[in-house]
Design a protein that fits this description.
Layout lengths: L1 E7 L17 H8 L3 E4 L9 H9 L3 E9 L2 E10 L8 H67 L6 H28 L2 H6 L1 H11 L3 E5 L8 H20 L5 E9 L2 E8 L11 H12 L3 E5 L7 E7 L10 H11 L4
Parallel strand pairs: 1-4, 5-6
Antiparallel strand pairs: 2-3, 3-4, 6-7, 7-9, 8-9
Helix pairs in contact: 3-4, 3-9, 6-7, 7-8
C-alpha cells in the first residue's frame, strides 16, 4: 500500500516515516472503506496517539484523503492536510478525481512494464529455440554429413584400377557432401552463431569480421561475458550492418566499436558506403529495432545519401524492467509520465 501525504502551510518532512493506522486518521478511513474521508481539528479533541500529537503540533485544521484504485483494487491513497484554514467542502471530490487520474497513470505504467517484460521473454524464448536448432544441426545433421563424406573418400581410395567412371562419380558425390556441409554450417551460423555461445561477444564479432566481404575495424575493449540477450542483440546488429554495407551500400570499410558506460552497452557501427538506408523498407533493421527496444534499449540510424550509414545502439545490461516492480517505482513513473501542468 502506497501513501502520499501533502501538507499545506508548513514545512514538514515525513518522507520515509512509518505510522500505525489509528481510528482518528483520515488514511485509516480510506484504507478501510476505499472511499474519500475528511477529518477536522475538532475530531482530534480527546484522542491520543503519535499521529494525533503530530497533527496537533503542526496545527492541522483539516485533513482529507482519497484512495488510489488500480484495476479495481485499492493500490494506495493520498491525504492532504491544511494547517492554515479549513479545506473546501468539495476537497474530497477534487482529490478523488486526482487519484482517479493517478490510478489510470499507474495502470498504464504497469501495463507498459508488463508489455516490456513480455516482449523480452518472447525474444529470449526465440533465442533459446534458435540456439537449440543450431546445436542440433551441428551435433546431428552436420556431423552425419561429415562422417558420410569421410566414408566416401575412404571408399574412393578402394576403387579398383580402371574404374575411372565410378571413381569420378564417388568424387562428385563427396564434393557435393562437402558443399552441403559448408552450406549447413553457414545456415546454422545464421540461426545462432556457435562462437557467441562458446566464447562470448568479442570472439564472435572477430569471427564475423573475418568472414565479412567488407574490411572491418573492430574496437572491443573488453572480454567479459554479458547477458545472453544483450550479446545476441549486439551480434545481430553488427551482422545486419555488415550485410547491408556489403550488399547495398557498396562500402569498402566498416568501423565497429563497443563500450560499457553506467551498465549500458554502447554499440556503434559506421561504414563509408553510399548511405540512403531506410529502416522502413527493410525487415532486417525493423527486426533489430524490435529486438533492442524489447530489451529496454534504443537504436538510432543516420544514413544520408553519399555520407555512409551510422548505427548507434544502447542496450541496458541489466535488461528491461520487469512487471514486478515495487509500488514506489511505478508511482514515480506514473507521476512523471502520466501528468502534466
Amino acid at each position: 500500500m502506497v501513501v502520499v501525504g501533502v501538507i499545506y502551510g508548513i514545512r514538514w518532512n515525513s518522507i520515509g516515516s512509518r505510522w500505525e493506522l489509528e481510528d482518528y486518521m483520515a488514511s485509516t478511513g480510506v484504507y478501510r472503506t476505499a472511499r474519500p474521508v475528511r477529518v477536522e481539528r475538532s475530531d482530534l479533541e480527546g484522542v491520543s496517539g503519535p499521529m494525533a500529537d503530530v497533527l496537533r503540533e503542526i496545527g492541522a485544521v483539516s485533513n482529507v484523503g482519497a484512495p488510489i484504485v488500480v484495476e479495481g483494487k485499492q493500490w494506495g491513497f493520498v491525504t492532504v492536510t491544511d494547517v492554515c484554514k479549513r479545506l473546501p467542502a468539495d476537497a474530497e471530490k477534487r482529490l478523488e478525481k486526482f487519484t482517479e487520474l493517478l490510478g489510470t497513470a499507474i495502470a498504464n505504467a504497469d501495463s507498459r512494464a508488463e508489455l516490456a517484460a513480455s516482449r523480452a521473454r518472447i525474444v529470449a524464448a526465440g533465442d533459446d529455440a534458435r540456439r537449440r536448432i543450431e546445436r542440433d544441426l551441428h551435433d546431428g545433421a552436420q556431423q552425419r554429413l561429415v562422417t558420410l563424406a569421410v566414408a566416401l573418400r575412404r571408399a574412393e581410395t578402394k576403387v579398383p584400377v580402371g574404374s575411372d567412371e565410378l571413381r569420378t562419380e564417388i568424387s562428385h558425390v563427396a564434393e557435393g557432401l562437402k558443399t552441403a556441409v559448408e552450406g549447413l554450417r553457414e545456415l546454422s551460423q545464421g540461426i545462432h552463431p556457435a562462437e557467441l555461445s562458446a566464447g562470448g561477444l568479442s570472439p564472435a564479432l572477430k569471427a564475423l569480421g573475418r568472414r565479412s566481404a567488407v574490411r572491418v575495424e573492430l574496437d572491443v575493449p573488453f572480454e567479459d561475458r554479458l547477458p545472453d540477450q544483450v550479446e545476441v542483440a549486439a551480434y545481430y546488429t553488427v551482422s545486419e550492418a555488415l550485410t547491408n554495407a556489403s550488399k547495398h551500400a557498396n562500402a569498402t570499410r566498416v568501423w565497429v566499436s563497443l563500450s560499457i558506460e553506467d551498465h549500458v552497452l554502447l554499440l556503434s557501427v559506421r561504414d563509408d558506403g553510399v548511405g540512403g538506408a531506410d529502416p522502413r523498407r527493410g525487415s532486417g533493421l525493423t527486426g533489430l529495432r524490435d529486438r533492442i527496444e524489447a530489451l529496454g534499449g534504443r537504436i538510432q540510424i543516420e544514413s544520408q545519401t553519399g555520407s555512409g550509414t551510422v548505427i548507434e545502439v544502447e542496450i541496458p545490461i541489466a535488461g528491461p524492467a520487469d512487471g514486478n516492480r515495487e509500488p514506489d517505482e511505478l508511482l514515480a513513473q506514473a507521476t512523471t509520465s502520466g501528468s502534466s501542468g
